[in-house]
Design a protein that fits this description.
Quinone Oxidoreductase, Chain A, domain 1; Rossmann fold; six-stranded parallel β-sheet
């Protein structure tokens, strides 16, 4: 088989490697398609850690940072009772970047990290399920504060996570969904996916009941804090402090960090996909052979792509 490997910043190779064998409790799967997680891909390509202060151990593990995959069960390790070979599955959890990833022909997964998926779902409609699970975690936290079924819900940052978040806000009962991003084409896509209003950050007005930030930018969170009365979920990875002062404290604003990945959140996200309430395919703007990986990353860097779907078996 072949897999991708980062040798260093801006250095990737597509090389032969042994087909992995599944161990106890593991499943080997044949990868059919894998979508980019733009922040991971761009940071690793650029030599910058995804999370501040953490090292990047080049050469990176083969197949990393690919983790949003659709595959077919190929072989079961000892102690695994199904799903049988040939079952179509999606990876719902990033297994960690200290083990091989999904930018490859085959990968080995812990059995619990795969969910069976319908045969009729196109690759692009379900490959980003892991990201949908991540966003679902934030919505679960907001729901604990009864901050989703509100009159006016804001979403800042209309990359892949934000485009998922606005659809979840709509699916879970928000009255009005306000999408916020400086890029006009992304605001237009947000309207197509169910946002009621789409504005540039400086155009945001009025009061939001609750919101989610999908940028990780302190300025974006601060902008939301100026307009939000109940709760803000900080989904984006924060790289600098966010000021939380007397006015937010006195007003009762809750500023939420992130929670824990879990299979239940993945199952709820998948139910939204199969029920037609969450459309992931519009996030995939380009499809390329995995041999053209660097080309896809350049599209992401130039904001010409939202997500890229890579096909490992296509030359």
């Amino acid at each position: 088989m072949k897999s991708l490997q980062y040798l260093g910043p801006n250095q990737v190779e597509w090389a032969d490697r042994p087909i992995p064998e599944p161990g106890p409790g593991q499943i080997r799967a044949r990868i059919e398609g894998v979508t980019t997680c733009p922040h991971w891909d761009l940071h690793i390509m650029g030599g910058e850690p995804m999370f501040p202060g953490r090292p990047i151990p080049y050469p990176y593990q083969p197949g990393q940072p690919g983790h949003e995959a659709v595959a077919r069960v190929d072989a079961l390790g000892p102690g695994v009772d199904g799903p049988p070979a040939g079952t179509r599955v999606a990876a719902w959890r990033d297994q960690g970047h200290d083990r091989p990833g999904c930018y490859a022909h085959f990968n080995v997964f812990e059995a619990d990290n795969l969910l069976p998926i319908p045969e009729d779902l196109p690759l692009e409609a379900v490959a980003p399920l892991e990201l949908a699970m991540c966003v679902q975690v934030s919505f679960d936290q907001l729901a604990q504060l009864d901050a989703v079924k509100v009159a006016r819900f804001g979403v800042t940052g209309l990359g892949p996570a934000g485009l998922i978040a606005l659809q979840m806000a709509r699916a879970y009962g928000a009255g009005e969904v306000v999408a916020i991003d400086p890029v006009a084409s992304r605001r237009e896509l947000a309207l197509q996916l169910g946002a009621d209003t789409a504005v540039a950050p400086e155009e945001l007005g009025g009061v939001l009941d609750a919101a989610i930030d999908c940028t990780g930018l302190a300025s974006a969170v601060a902008n939301l804090m100026e307009h939000t009365r109940r709760a803000i979920s900080t989904f984006g990875v924060l790289r600098e402090p966010v000021p939380f002062g007397f006015r937010q404290w006195a007003g009762g604003l809750a500023l939420l960090g992130y929670g824990s990945h879990n299979r239940s959140a993945a199952e709820r996200a998948l139910a939204l996909v199969t029920g037609g309430q969450l459309r992931l395919a519009p996030l995939v703007t380009h499809t390329l052979p995995l041999t053209r990986y660097a080309e896809g990353i350049e599209l992401l860097r130039n904001k010409e792509a939202i997500k890229v779907l890579y096909l490992p078996w296509t030359e």
